Every structure is written in C-alpha cells, then in structure tokens.
Structures
1.
Amino acid sequence: MAVAMNSPAVPVAEAPQRWLTDPILRVENLTMRFGGLTAIDRLSFDVGRGDITALIGPNGAGKTTVFNCVTGFYKPTEGRIALKRGRNIADSVVDQLTASGDQHREHADGSVYLLERMADFKITEKAGVARTFQNIRLFGGMTCLENLLVAQHNTLMRASGFTIAGLFGLPAYTRARKAAMEKAIAWLGYADLLDRADDPAADLSYGAQRRLEIARAMCTGPALLCLDEPAAGLNPRESAELNKLLRLIRDEHDVSLLLIEHDMGVVMEISDHIIVLDYGKKIADGSALDVRNDPRVIAAYLGVDDEEVEAVEEKLDVGDVDAAIEVAHVDGTTDAQGRAS
Ligand SMILES: Nc1ncnc2c1ncn2[C@@H]1O[C@H](COP(=O)(O)OP(=O)(O)OP(=O)(O)O)[C@@H](O)[C@H]1O
C-alpha cells in the first residue's frame, strides 16, 4: 500500500512517555525466522499503558509478524513478550516468572503473562489481548447486535457452568445475559451504530464494518487491543470517525492500543508513540514528532540510498521537513509499497 509521509497531518502535542515509565507490554529480543528468512530480528520495544502505539514500516518490514507473535498466532523463534496487567509490577517479577517455566503469575500489583508461552485463545481470554485483522472478519449474515453478543460467548458459557442450565433460567446466567446485552448496546452506541443494530453486518459500509469489528473486539473486555490496518480503505470521513472511536477507547475505557497502520494521517494524528520497523529491525522509536522528522524513517519509506540519507538529514537540520521529503522523492526510487526497488 502506498504511504504518504507528507500528508497534511498535524502532530499531536508531546505526550508523557508512558512506554518508558509504565509499559503494559514489553517485547524483548523478539526473533522470528521462517526457514532461512529472518522476518523479525532481535526486536525490543515497550507499549505504554493507556497509549495509542503505532507500529509502522514499509511492506514486508515485519509488522504483521510481530502482531502474530503478540497474539499467539505464531510461536516466536526467540524472545520474551511480557504483558503486565497492573501498574508498578517490577521487572524482577517477570524474571521470576520466566525462570519458573510458567505462563502466568498473580502478583499483589496485578497479573503478569508471558505471551510467547501461551496459546492464542488463552491470550485473548486470560491475558486480555484482542485483535482485528487486515481483512474484515465479521459474521456478515448476523446482525450487528448478534456480532457483539457472539463475542461474549465465553462469558456466557462460564455463567452457565458450561451446561444447558442457562436454558432453565439459572440466575447467574440470566444476569450474565443481561450484562452481555447491555455491553453490546453500549458498544453499538460508542461505534455510532445503534440505529443499525438489527441490520446484517454485511449491509454496513466499509467504515462502519471496521468500527463494528473494533466494537466486537472491545466486547471481549481487553486490556490491550491490537488493530491491523484499521484505516485501510477508509475515506477521510470514515477515518475521522475511526480516530474518534480509538481515542474514546484510550481515554474512557482504560485500554491500551497497538496498531499497524500505513495511513500516516491517522498515525500522526492519534499516536502517542510510534515504532518504525524496516527489514525486521527497529529503526526509530519515539513520539509522532520525533519519528516524522527522523531521516532513517523518511529514507526507509521513500527508498533513498544510504548516501542520500545525508541530504535528507541536511534539510531536516534546518527544520525543513517538506524539503527533506522532496529530496527523498527525487532521489529515491520506490515501488507501490513504499519499498526501494
Ligand atoms: N508464514 C510465513 N511464512 C514465510 N514467510 C513469512 C510468513 N509470514 C511472513 N513472512 C515473511 O516475513 C516478512 C515480514 O512479513 P510481514 O507480513 O510481517 O510484513 P508487514 O510489515 O506486515 O508487511 P505488510 O505491510 O505488507 O502487511 C516478509 O518477507 C514475509 O514474506
């Protein structure tokens, strides 16, 4: 997908650097090899609790592979992925858990999970990590409301004691069913889809389907929400609606977000923290402002040669980002994916 570094985005004001002081997710020395190909190479980064963190980079940089490792779809070749559900959990607690060989530990300040040791369904259910995919995966024939109820199936099954007792009006099940309905209706509201509750999901516009998918992920009660290209294919109005929903999730629901995104307008506007990958390695890590001005990032996206990075740097030294991008555009030869050809 083409990437526009010079989109008219206004970077957000400098936010507190929570990824340094209070990480919810800590990825350390992550390596993923597919046969002879090293897709991720000793990658380390932190995701701040309560932040919107964007993982960006040209096509093939390894973003989806990182997501697949965090969410348990892939078992990493090496590395540790620790999720801390609770503030002030010392690194020594994570080290003790690692040494114990266990997957999870309850601690006075919260729970710690080693995601690289867990199956994907446990990562969702126990650690509280939800995700969406590049291609929308709703149940198209079900209504919007039904999609959000299905997401709460596990909670309802637990409440029924995993029996048919729910059918006979077990009080715990009746309460859980009411709570599930209230949650589904609340998320339809947050996603601005209340008036479409009884319509089949497949009838919604593309942007509305994206918001429904995010609402469905939120119905699982995550602590960390991973979104794979949520703005792909959206028009400017739909992107603005998406940004509003993502900010609401961060600001009012105490959920941290990790997203892969190619749309630099969305990334620069809503991200507290940006991590840039190229060829499976981290090439930049910081606020939107830092990353936007980083010559290595511009070079990676626009495909300039190493010696031309200096020319880009010179323009940036005098604060002329647009001229730096212009230099990169003239000198770099890019293919449609923003990768040098
Ligand atoms: N299951 C797999 N088997 C073999 N190679 C893979 C597999 N998954 C990913 N790769 C390779 O790993 C590298 C990183 O791919 P990945 O999909 O993570 O990149 P990406 O940054 O998400 O790209 P895009 O922006 O196009 O989605 C690529 O070279 C890709 O071909």
2.
Amino acid sequence: MEDKYVIGIDFGTDSVRALVVNAVTGETAGTAVSEYPRWKSGLYCNAALSQFRQHPLDYTESMEASVKAALSGVPDKVRRSIKGIAVDTTGSTPVAVDRAGTPLALLPEFETNPNGMFILWKDHTANAEAEEINELAHRWETDYTQFVGGVYSSEWFWSKILRTLRIDERVREKAFSWVEHCDWISAELAGNTDPLSMKRSRCAAGHKALWHQDFDGLPSNAFFEELDPLLGGLRERLFEYTYTSDQSVGTIAPEWADRLGLPEDVVIGVGAFDAHMGAVGALAEPYALCKVIGTSTCDMLVAPNEEVGHLLIKGICGQVDGSIVPGMLGMEAGQSAFGDVYAWFAKLVIEPVKSLLGEEQAKVVADKLITHLAAEAALLPVSEKDLLAVDWLNGRRTPDANHTLKGALLGLNLATNGAAIFKALVEATAFGSKSIVERFKAEGVPVHEVIAIGGVSKKSPFVMQTLADVLNMPIKVAVSEQACALGAAMFASVASGIHQSLPQAQQAMSSGFDAVYHPRPDIVGIYDKLYDKYLKAGDFIEKEFLKESTFPLQIG
Ligand SMILES: Nc1ncnc2c1ncn2[C@@H]1O[C@H](COP(=O)(O)OP(=O)(O)O)[C@@H](O)[C@H]1O
Ligand SMILES: O=C(CO)[C@H](O)[C@H](O)COP(=O)(O)O
C-alpha cells in the first residue's frame, strides 16, 4: 500500500501533543508538545476553590504550535500524504457557547471570565450540584445514573452547567448551548461549530452527559426542569445522536488547512477522551485493564456487549456502547489524583526552598525531587506496620465518586522521613488502583491483565513495581510515549478510509509493549494486609471523620 499519513492530537491537562504517523507502517514521522501558556501561568484558576479553567485560545494556539512543530522536520511528500486528523481531550471539560458555537471566552465581553472558559475535568466547584443530580436521579422514575455507576460526579457535564448557570447571569443570558472540548476542537477544525448540527462524541456524551440509547438520548426535559428551571429547554439545544470515533465530522476547514499547512482534503474524525483513545493506542484487548497513569488515572476496560452488557456496574464512571472500541462496551473508572499526589508532596517540600533560596535554586531541587524520593523509598523495607496513606487528596473518582473526601497520613512518628512519606503516598495510589480492580471483579467483570500508559508508567519504575506488587498482577507498559495520540491517529486512519476497521488500524500501527513488571511474591502478602488497613482508614474518613461536615465541604 502506498504510504499515507495521519495526525493524532492529544490535549492533556497541561499541554497538547501532536503525532504524525505513517498509517501503513505505524512509524512516527514527527511529534511535538506545546504547553498552554495561560494555564501555565495559573490564570483563571483558584486551587483553594478547586476552580480550574482553560481558555479556548490556549487550545487553538498550542494545537497550531504543536502540529507545525511536529511537521517541521517531515518531507513535503509526507505532508501532502496526510489524510486524516483525530483529537482526544480531557473530559468532562465543557464550555458555554453562543448560537454560532463560539466559546464565550472568545467573545470580547467574556475574554477574561472563567465561567465562559472550558471547565477542566478536575474542577470540583460543582460538588453541591452533583449531589442534587444524584438525589433527584435516584428518586426519578428512570434512574439516569444507572449506566454511570449510580453516582453522578462534580467533574461532569451537567453539574458544571448547572453551577455556572446559577452563579453567572451574563453567561446564563449568552449561553445557547454547551460543548465538550473534544467535540468543539473537532468541529472547529472542520469549520462547523453549529451546536445543533456538530457531531457529538459517544464517549463524552455517554460517560459524562447521561446520554444512553435506552433514554432516547439525554434525560428528559422534565427531569432537568425539576432539577432547576434554569436547565429547562437546554436539552433541545444539545444533541440527540452521538457518534463513535471511527466516523468523520467532515473535511478540514480551509482556514485550518492554511494555518496548519495541510492538504484541503484532510478528514477530521469524531473526537473522544484521552484515556479512551489511549486504550486503543495501547492495544487493550477485552478484559485488559488499561491504566492511563499521569496526573490522575483513567482505568479503561473493553468487553463484548453480549457478555457484560446486561450488567449495571456500580461505582464506576460509566459503561457505554462504543465509547472506546466501536461495537464493544467501554467502561471507565479512575483516580482523581495519582501523580498529582506526588506533585503535592514535592510542592510541600519545594515551596519553603523557593521562599528561602529563590526560584532558581528551588528549580534545581524540584527537577530531581520525585526521582530522588523514589530512589530512597525503593530502599526501604516493606512491612505491615509501615506508615499508611489514603490517596483521596483530590477526592475519590471511583469506586463511588465522592469529591468531598480527603486524603490522610496515619502512623507518623519522629523517625518518619520524606522517603517514608513518599513511599506511603505511592502505596496509597496503588491501593486506590486495587480498589478499582476489586470493584470490577465484585460486579462480575473479570480483569485478565493490566496495561499501563501515561507519563508515570514511563517515568517511575518504583511506582510501577509497587503497583504490580499491590495488584498482584503483572503490568505491561506500552512502548509508545504517546499512546493517546497514537490511538487518535488510529481513529483518524479509519475515519479517513485508510483502514476499513479499527482492529485493522491497530494491527498496522501498534507500537507494542516494552517493560513488564512482575509482582514480587514476598511483598504481595504484606501489601494485602496493608490494603485491609487502607480500606479501614478510608471507611473512617468517609463515615466518621467527615460525618459532621456540612455540604459542600470547603476545599483547601
Ligand atoms: N519520576 C516520577 N515519578 C513519579 N511520578 C512522576 C515523576 N515525574 C513526574 N511525575 C508525575 O507525573 C504526572 C504527570 O504525568 P503526565 O502523564 O506526564 O501528564 P498528564 O497527566 O498531564 O498527561 C505529575 O502528576 C507528576 O507528579
Ligand atoms: O477523566 C478524564 C477522561 O475520562 C480526564 O480526561 C483525565 O483524567 C485527564 O487526565 P490527564 O491529565 O492525566 O490526561
């Protein structure tokens, strides 16, 4: 087959990565990363309030920069052979748009208003609204949370919309509709951002917006009106149909072909969430748990509809037909903070250094700190009497979403040093992972193997070994540094007709696996005991320690 190329674009929390791939051989022709400038300087965010917003210009500018940089070294012949682009993004990361589908922050009167920007997945300002949605859904004639694990989260679409409409009159007046990041970028690239006709991702709609075939689309207008009259009528300005990512949204808009220096017939695929496309890029087979391990984790599982489609799996972030692989049931779970737990501890150490010795000296320490702590922690013996941590520093995503929960450290004494704390934090993140695996199993979904992708899986052998020991399962790490972008590229190759099906694209373009971490038999038993203590500590936090708190809890 003549060489044909595609581009996968992966919008992460901090940066966007572009990957130019030969769709026939899977070879990478070019790649580049670009950070979001406004986000990097902390604009529009307030961690103490758990408010995390991203400006649409951060996305478009960084996308342009990364695609151009990825293409800068490739021969002209390759550039002319690019046939398709697909994007993945974080989610639920919705934005209010006007009638034309323009995010409000792109209008002069909203350009600095955080409520007119994308509300990043990890923004937890809508805890109270999530609780209201749960309360109503559980007593409504149809429990609309049944396909999202029985708990609606403050990280998701409707919680964020409801909160924003309540608190910002100007946004309320101007917002015609709401769009997920993965849908808006794809629509923007294809030059049709009309909220009523843009193609919406099955993945985003099913996992975060309560869309399901059995509901004839989104929950009823009566449900939303009962929740709050402010939501009345919005359903009609959203969407009824959804699309899997093997479909196309259209051909690249001339403006974007020009900006990116691409042919005018490039096909744009339907977008999806990063972790979902990551599982595709990592070649996750049915019943392989694919853990995307970075700031947070997303734990993805694919299974044939006919085998598990009848189950209602409690406490996960959704089960959606075609959300990962078209034609299969896609399931999502995850942890709200994973690498972020280590980043928190590193920041705790670095902040005083910065104040006392200045930015430059602090940077020297910061660059080496996590690796140093991991090396020290790896030397410590593992015992069931060790310091214990609970990983809910950013709440708990699964099992059973609850973003008001807090983390903990138990067992400090005067000998406890930084390495011991770091070790306990790493173990806590691994225990959080184990509770997800246990939940899948308890709900009748077997987990046959574990695959890891994402920054932490590449950066930290210590974390990966601990995870294998705690899970008592081998973990395969995918070769690709950019499995999400690679998954997007695979989808682009199907949407643009290079490959006839996703499995065909995966076979041609997969990068395979390199490291495999095997559980150490002498440690596994100790971790089983520590895991029991972790469950008890979590129970105490949830049922006793936070019992008296009024809702919503103060974050920070
Ligand atoms: N050496 C390391 N060991 C463990 N975790 C690390 C290390 N270096 C960075 N991290 C963590 O990796 C996370 C970022 O993961 P990455 O996958 O690169 O980004 P993203 O989640 O934005 O896609 C951060 O939370 C950081 O704390
Ligand atoms: O929940 C998600 C997908 O369903 C988020 O997109 C994901 O957690 C973002 O994480 P990261 O920054 O590690 O890519």
3.
Amino acid sequence: MKKNLFIAFEGIDGSGKSTQVKLLKDKLEQAGLKVYTTCEPTESPIGKIIRDIFTHKMEADHRVIAGLFVADRLDHLLNKTNGIIKMLEEGYTVITDRYYFSSYAYQSTHMDLNWVIQANSLSANLLKPDVNVFIDITPEQSMERLKKGRTSIELYETLENLQNVRNKYFEVMELLQSVEEIFKTNGNRDAETISNEIWNNLERRFN
Ligand SMILES: Nc1ncnc2c1ncn2[C@@H]1O[C@H](COP(=O)(O)OP(=O)(O)O)[C@@H](O)[C@H]1O
Ligand SMILES: Cc1cn([C@H]2C[C@H](O)[C@@H](COP(=O)(O)OP(=O)(O)O)O2)c(=O)[nH]c1=O
C-alpha cells in the first residue's frame, strides 16, 4: 500500500456511512496507513449554520442551504489548518462522510440538478474522490433506523423526501459515471459484510 487516497461515503440518511467510515479507518490503520476522517456538513462555522437549519433552530430557503453547502465544501477542501487538500499533502488517507454527491442528490430534489453541479464545480475541479462509495438502503429502512436512533427528525428526513433523494442519487450517478469512480454496495446487510466488500474493492486502488 503506498498511495494516499481520498474516499467519499454517500447514501441517504441512516444508510450506515459513519459506521462504515469507522470500520474502514480501522482496517486502513491496521494496514499501517495514516487516516483522517471528516464529514459534511463540517464542524466549521458554516457547517454550524447548516446544522442549526437542519435541527430547526433557524429557517432558510433551499437555495440558501445549497449555497451554504457550496461554501462549507470549499472551506472543507481549502482550510489551511485541517482542509482535505492539506491533509492529503501531509500523507493522510482522507475519508469523508458525504461530499458533493450529497448536494447533487439532496439539493436537486428542490432545485435544478445542473445548477447544483455547476455551483459545486470549483470543488469538483479541485478534488474528485478516488472513489465514491454509495451505500444503498431503502427509505423505509432509513426511517426505521432513524426512529430508533434519534430524538427528533431533521429537515430532509421524511419518507417522501428520502425516496426522492435516493432516486436523485441514482440519476446523478448514471449521469456522471464516465467522470466519477463510484462503488455501490447494498447497505441492507450486516455491517461487517458490507465493510469487507468495501475493503475488497478498495484494496487494489492503494497500489
Ligand atoms: N449494516 C447495518 N445494519 C443495521 N443497522 C445499521 C447498519 N449500519 C449502521 N446501522 C445503524 O443504523 C443507524 C445509522 O447508522 P450510521 O452509521 O450513523 O448512518 P449514517 O452515518 O449514514 O447516518 C445507527 O443506529 C447504526 O447503528
Ligand atoms: C453534505 C450534504 C448533506 N446534506 C444533508 C443530508 C442530511 O440530511 C443532513 C445532515 O447530514 P448528516 O449529518 O450526514 O446526516 P446523516 O448522518 O443522517 O446521513 O445534511 C445535504 O442536503 N446536502 C449536502 O451537500
């Protein structure tokens, strides 16, 4: 293993992204790599505004939310202290829980997909993931898991919206299949099985 990769996890809410990020981090560290895990919305002040909107502490139009994600993502990449580009330069393998495919899927359920892709083009031109890992679960499974683990339901967490978002993910993955590396995995299996499948797919990419 020599190359340090940038890996993005994608999927609807509750698909198991953070579980899989952790399992992959453990495997990569056991293989001797330095691993930096991160997420969007980020922990930055812009990310905090987004979280406040999602938890209903603030209100904002969907177009404002789309713009905030564009800014949050650019800071995620370019931040001089812990930006993804800096961490890659320092030799870390970087795993992010969500990246621009999340905007393509979630924001395009409320506005034009091409606008969302254009608005994120600065990020896409700066850094494309070596692989986007898409974990697929049904919106019904998602709602089941969210109900178990949450005390409140966030802005986009309704059955109908998650159905739309999942459809958008498939639409945009097809649209961009020639320019993006995408690995799809069935998230309706036990976490270890999914993790092993992801590992089998990723291992060769490090050589
Ligand atoms: N493969 C799986 N099968 C069943 N439940 C899972 C699986 N992976 C994660 N979970 C559970 O589903 C919930 C959401 O998982 P999480 O990893 O936080 O998803 P996400 O980061 O995509 O929202 C958590 O309660 C987690 O324990
Ligand atoms: C990164 C990103 C997230 N989101 C949404 C998806 C989630 O509903 C919400 C919070 O993301 P996240 O904390 O990853 O939620 P979960 O763990 O439930 O998947 O932000 C967007 O709408 N656009 C984006 O670009």
4.
Amino acid sequence: MPTEIMHRPEDYDREFDPDAYLQYYFSKEAIERGTRVSLFALPVFAQILLQTVPENERQSLLDIGAGPTVYSALCFRDVVKRVYLTDYVNKNLEILKEWLNKTNPYDWCPTIRVIKRTEGGFPPSDDELNVIEEHTRGIVKKGGILWGNVHLHTVVPELPIKQVDVVLSVFCLESACHNFDQYINCMKNITRHLRPGGKFVLGSVLEDEAYNSGRQKIFSLLYLTEEMIMRALGEADIDLESVKKYVLEEEGVMFLMASKRLQ
Ligand SMILES: C[S@@+](CC[C@H](N)C(=O)[O-])C[C@H]1O[C@@H](n2cnc3c(N)ncnc32)[C@H](O)[C@@H]1O
C-alpha cells in the first residue's frame, strides 16, 4: 500500500484542488450520500439573525476561507445585503468568479435543495432554485470575491477592519494553523474585521488531525478541543456568554455563533 502524503498548511496554494473538493463534498452524489452538517447549522443561525438583529445591523457578511464554495452566501441570502467570499488559494477565487459570471458548470442545485429542506416549507421547483441562486449572485456582486490570509493582521487587505456585521469561517483555521499559538493569533486576526457587537459564526473540526480534500489528497488539521476553541474565542474579544453552539460528536464538528464584545 502506498503511504499517503500529508499536506501541510503551507501547501494549500500548490496542492489544493477545488474541483476535487467540490466533487467530494458538494456534488449531487456527495450531497445524497451524506448531507454536509454545515447545511443544517448555517440556516439555523441565519434564521436566528433574521429574527433577532435589526436589518440595519446586518448588512454585510464576510466568509473567510470559503474555498470554492458559495453555500454560506446561499444560507445567509435573506439576512444580509452584501457577501464577501474570500480565500487564500487563487484557484478557489477563480472558481468563485466563474460562478459569479455563470461560466462555471458546477451545479449548486443539490446544495440549495438541502438548505431549503432545513429552512422548511415545500420542496422548491427548479425555477425557485434558480431564483435563489440568482439572488445570491446579486449579493455576492455587491460584496466581492477577495484574497485573504488568516495569518495577516488584516486578513482581507482590501477590507477595512472593524466594519463587517457578520464574520463567518468554516473549517478554515484548523486547516491553516500548525500550532495553538498560531490558531489564537489567527482567531484574533479574523475577528478584527468584525465591528463591535457584530456576529461571529464558526464551524470547526474537533479532535482530528487530517482530512481528505478530495481524490485522496490529505491535508493536516490542527488538533482542537472544544475548550481550546473557547479559549481562543475569549482572547479574540468574543463574548463567551453569547455563544450558541452545536457539537455533533459523531461527526466530530462544532458550529457556533457568538457576538463580539462591545469594547
Ligand atoms: C477545508 S477547506 C474549507 C472550505 C469551505 N469553508 C467549506 O466549508 O467547505 C479549507 C479552506 O481554508 C483555506 N485556507 C488555507 N489556508 C488559509 C489561509 N492561510 N488563509 C485563508 N484561507 C486559508 C483553503 O484554501 C481552503 O479553501
């Protein structure tokens, strides 16, 4: 048996394959094989924001480490007016731009169907799916597709700090960090974009050290416990009393939403 190569955080630009990732996690077959837990958690958080935050306080959302995926924008399409999708890997940004310009054949309808199922109501028609995707394109056009690096003080250099209403990051930090000190630092970097009182949404793998990014290309993960993540959030000005979290032990993931402290 060949030994699998373990890719490291510094290998993303060279080794991450957006097509393999989408195929493995978001193709019709993958979605039917086992639903992505993100597609359960994010619509629930979106609904909470819709019901509890006044419209003028939820104008913008920044997804850090979106990869080639647009599901965050799909889930929050009725919550905010502008979505910024960002990633470190230029190949991912190219796929996102192709989606925006409708030149990428990738089919997001299976994902939208699952999001709609979580949201409740009747199964959507094909026309409804198209309307949802078009509306989502509109809010990403108002925001943008931008490069970012969680190791930078200003993660997305084109965006000012302390301005965004909702910062979201799913399965990114544990991919990008070698050790816990780096993780804490990156957590501070990403929440710096959030305005005081803004909402932070995090999806994280728990207690694992590697994942398959598609076609058996394995990347390392920083081993994290729930306690470590809470400690990092506390150091990054997140109000720990405000944390609403879902821990899915079987899946080895945690999703949470919390507020940034007012000062
Ligand atoms: C496991 S994928 C998650 C993608 C997407 N958020 C999702 O939920 O499917 C990890 C992502 O983190 C990005 N990433 C890795 N290092 C990064 C860094 N230093 N700064 C920003 N993003 C990074 C990768 O390019 C990749 O898109």
